Amino acid sequence: MPTRKQPSQEQINEVKTRFLDKLVTEPPKVPFNESDLERIRSNDIWITQLLEVFKLDVEKTIMRLWEICAWRESYGANDIIESKLNKEYLHDGQIYVHNHDHEGKPLLIVNFSKHSKSKNQDDLIRLIVYWVERIQREDYLQKITLFMDMTNSGLSNVDIDFVKKIISLFETSYPNAPNYIIVHQLPFLLNAAFKVVKNFMPAEALEILRVTTKKDIQEYVNKDNCLTIWGGTDDYSFEFKSA
């Protein structure tokens, strides 16, 4: 993980105080979710993470935290449950959480060999939000590693618009969540397409982006946490389990 400067308590307090003051003087038209406000009031973890990502820029952190809270309320991020998800996508093994990177952060795996452009992108993004929220409820505001698995995928599987939507989701709504963004076993034929994607990625995402193969994946995911198709020892087969 790239080294990021640690915010001071003074910077954390300034973000918190000014954000909460703004709630009083310029309240949003739609009130923010009380769970999110309690997260801000009760401890410093969320603000600390955002300050780190935004290089201790207090103004930017306040602005982005406000935007994130507005999105969370409008999207219903706190209320996404299994019954509100596409059942087929929930169980088909394209998007799921399994194992950890070498720093102990959960792997949010997107298996592109199971992707099709005919799938509803909004439903897929909602499934990603479900998993991020589930992880961060089970282990408070835990970071994750987004693992875009291109193993055995071809031109029919790789959907540039979908990749851009995933990147945009983390950039706008969960900038503090990714530990790494790993693109694994990118087919040679897709190099040019991926260069297009990189052009849309913010600097914060490029800092943690890693493109891996079987030769070097264990720099980021230990062998016993690697699936056998990645060159590891884990022969796991996906099966959805309720929280």
From TrEMBL:
Encoding gene (name): LOC111594850
Domain (CRAL-TRIO): residue spans on this chain: 82-238
One Pfam family hit: CRAL_TRIO
InterPro entries given in the database record: CRAL-TRIO_dom, CRAL-TRIO_dom_sf, CRAL/TRIO_N_dom_sf, ER-organelle_contact
PANTHER family: MOTILE SPERM DOMAIN-CONTAINING PROTEIN 2 (PTHR46384)
Record's GO cellular component terms: endomembrane system; endoplasmic reticulum-endosome membrane contact site
Membrane spanning residue stretches: none
SMART domains reported in the protein's UniProt record: SEC14
Descriptive protein name: Motile sperm domain-containing protein 2
SUPFAM superfamilies to which the protein is assigned, alphabetical: CRAL/TRIO domain, CRAL/TRIO N-terminal domain
Organism whose genome encodes this protein: Drosophila hydei
